[in-house]
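Hi F.,

I've been meaning to write this up properly since the lab meeting, where we talked about keeping a consistent format for the predictions we share between groups. The idea is simple: the sequence comes first, exactly as it goes in, then the structure tokens exactly as they come out, then a line or two of notes. No screenshots and no reformatting. I'm using this chain as the first example so we have something concrete to point to.
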Amino acid sequence: MVSAFLDDRWLPKSIVCLRDYNRHKFLLDLIAGVTVGLVALPLAMAFSIASGLTPQAGIYCAVVTGFLISALGGSKTQIGGPTGAFVVVVAGIVAVHGVDGLFMCTVMAGVLLVIMGATGLGTGVKFIPRPVVIGFTNGIAVLIASTQIKDFFGVHLDKVPGVFWQRMDALARNFHTLSFEATALAVFTLLTLIICRSFSARIPGPIVALLLGTLAVYFFKLPVETIGTRFGGIPNGLPHLQIPKFRPELIHGLLGPAFTVAMLGAIESLMSAVVSDRMSNDRHNPNVELIGQGVANIFSPMFGGLPATGAIARTATNIRSGAQSPIAGIVHAATLLCILLFAAPLVSYVPMCALAGILMVVAYNMGEWGEIPQLLKLTKTDISIWLVTFGLTVFADLTVAVEAGMILAALLFISRVAATTTVSEVTDEYVEDGRMHILQDKDIPYYATIFRIHGPFLFGATDKISVVTESLHKLPPVVILRLRNMTALDATGLFALEEVAKQLHASKRTLILCGAREQPAQLIHQAEFAEVVGRENICDNVQEALSRAEEVYEGLEAKFVTAKS
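Output, unedited:
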């Protein structure tokens, strides 16, 4: 039993990566870690303040969890810390149960994440369909943006209501008290972030915007609220170890929020790990990642920190800055610790409106708004699930939205699988039609390969498509995906097919789909998937697909001859 936990399946990536580690990789990790540490500073403070806590709680969380997630997790370049996904749920827990309740909830969620990882449930998050995930992220983005309106415009409002429609009503009634200086500085922050991004994704926009905004407040004595005026600055020195007060009477009321924090943490961290894999050509270990996330969330409250998970934007910054291993994440945590030790007084000058501007951009980026037009092309069931999840997230409660999303996922799965069952008579026409689809009498040329999908290709099964691209460099110029035995397709499955098509296209290969049955064929047409692979690359049967593969290969040969001559 012990030896099973000592093989690579249960080893953190930090240990696996040390096997071929060298000084060159360390230098790259050092540069990336310092860069992402500076970027993480304004985000950690902003998320903490938006959650109803002090700015140092966010920094403490980023230091402790950033170190533990990198040291114990299953992703090579993932950066952990406080994220926008938790802002709304954390604010709700603090409002109802206080800070002690938040710390207890974070520990409970951490234990759940460790259990999920240790029991192999790290792959279980894939059973949440894409419309539900998009509904969550859209709703959370709207809620985060709504909480930042007060500081963005410098509106004078003693207490911002926790309920969305009450918050918007209070802001509308007090909007006449806005500060033109705060608004101008917030807009300047937005423009700085947009300009930095347009020039290069490598430029750390948040830190540039924060520095310029802080310098403007310091030198021009702008009458705007700062971290110093609202919180009295942040303490100088190391975070103190303090075991959270255990209150048994809160356990029952915190079970729902703890489950929500655990599920959001699992979803966000594994989504971020997938992004990390694509950018760094690696493959994360989902179970080890969840164990690392769980341990980090157990320890975070002991230093006064928030719940944490994988942060997609910081992970992308880490990779773009040249990160080679989890050492970069550890350096990121050390960078933030150095700021606490040596530069804490300077943070007092950071304007609240600048942090609000940064969070507005974070909310926009995390919203996945580009997915909505694609969703609207799908079935009414997918659209209704997205709308219900979005509506519950914004107007009800995130815990209710998560629970409803899971129930909807289960019902959708049952419905889709039930629809795959058919009873029909075998006729002469049926037999004759099948001849065009069988492979036994077909010759597969050397320039093409055929993969098949057998059974319903729905959420929960889409990760199996990775077999197509896991040895991408070995594939021939044409890849045929035979869908004859794929009985059902949903939005998550369609998204997985699109990702495969993009990866093959990026490697100068052609993807051809063939033999789709009625329901998958209708969804592929409805979602305008032909725009992704080309209308000529969607064929009725495998014989047609092989003929198309020949055309593609002949075209490639002609280009090669022309280029050579």
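Notes:
The chain has a mean pLDDT of 87.
The longest helix spans residues 87-118.

If this format works for you, I'll send the rest the same way.

G.
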